[in-house]
Design a protein that fits this description.
By secondary structure, this protein is α+β, with helices and mostly antiparallel strands. It contains 7 helices and 16 strands. Strands 7-2-8-1-14-13-15 form a 7-stranded antiparallel sheet, with helices on one face. The protein has a 5-stranded antiparallel sheet with strand order 9-10-11-12-16. It has a 4-stranded antiparallel sheet with strand order 4-5-3-6, covered by helices on one side. Strand 9 and strand 10 form a beta hairpin. Helix 2 crosses helix 3 and helix 6 crosses helix 7.
């Protein structure tokens, strides 16, 4: 059992409150996943800058320092790609005027085994072990501006309780996926994706879902089609929420074993595992509230 809370803020007037609203949602699903938590925030000007790639890197005991990272990247990045390194809670942010792949390759070459938890021009991913409310507080989620926010509370069932094993899984630029449930055939799908040249960072079944979606998007699918194809390939009981730089989507397994509820209004779209996570949202009494149908993909664009 895990908890999902996601928010797409359509109203510009509400975007300064995105972090506060998402924190309130997250705090209502803690008992669904007390082991660890993760959050993704889109378009926060204090964390990301258009035109710069930003990596979210986890502290995994490698002895990484800000000065060491800056020195390494100053030596390895192309001219003009000088890196900026910052810490936010348990997460290190690395930004440079290069593409995210080049930046990730440079960091990984200098620190083999480093965990890149997020990448892109729009998203910041923050993950840690511990009570989800404490994780949110350490990262300052409550005060954050954003166009979209995605959060997850984890109750580990198939892999270790680590920051790297927490959700969201962000395996391509500005793409994040969170998951409540399990994929029963993730090992065979992992083998097929590896045969196609897809690399993996963990044994987590959720990463298989994220890698599959990223692979389909890179092959030309739109988000709805990628998630429709996922339902044909991955078996199990699940609710998935996926975000990109400009969109958010949800899909449940064909028998809708795992819970989900959506509140949709002119000002926002909110998704949660339980209604109580939505109850405090402004204008909730006039929002359209519904449970997603089994196997159907729902998408919303900013």
């Amino acid at each position: 059992m895990c908890g999902i809370a996601a928010l797409q803020v359509r109203s510009a007037a509400l975007r300064p409150q995105m972090g506060s609203l998402l924190t309130g949602m997250l705090c209502q699903i803690i008992e669904r996943g007390p082991d660890s938590a993760g959050m993704a925030v889109y378009d926060n000007p204090d964390l990301v800058t258009s035109g710069l790639a930003t990596l979210s890197v986890l502290d995994t005991g490698l002895g990484i320092t800000d000065a060491g990272l800056e020195r390494l990247l100053g030596e390895s990045l192309p001219a003009g790609g000088e890196a900026r390194v910052r810490e936010i809670g348990d997460t290190t942010l690395i930004s440079a005027q290069v593409d995210a792949g080049t930046l990730a390759d440079a960091v990984s070459a200098g620190y083999p085994g480093i965990v890149v938890a997020g990448r892109g021009e729009h998203v910041t991913v923050m993950k840690s072990v511990g009570n989800p409310q404490d994780v949110a507080r350490r990262h300052g989620l409550e005060g954050m501006f954003g166009t979209q926010g995605l959060s997850h509370t984890r109750m580990a069932t198939e892999s270790a309780v680590t920051a790297a094993g927490s959700h969201p899984f962000a395996v391509a630029d500005d793409l994040c996926l969170v998951h409540n449930g399990s994929f029963s055939n993730h090992a065979s799908v992992r083998r097929e994706l590896k045969r196609l040249g897809v690399d993996f960072d963990s044994e987590n079944d959720t990463e298989v879902g994220a890698r599959y979606v990223a692979h389909r998007l890179a092959s030309g699918d739109d988000l709805e089609t990628a998630l429709t194809n996922l339902g044909k390939v991955l078996d199990g009981f699940y609710t998935l929420v996926v975000t990109t730089a400009t969109s958010m989507a949800i899909v449940r397994d064909p028998i809708a074993c795992k819970p989900a509820i959506v509140a949709e209004s002119a000002e926002y779209v909110a998704i949660a595992s339980e209604f109580r996570a939505l109850a405090h949202l402004p204008g909730i009494e006039s929002a359209r509230i519904f449970e997603p149908e089994p196997g159907r993909v729902y998408t919303w664009d900013l």
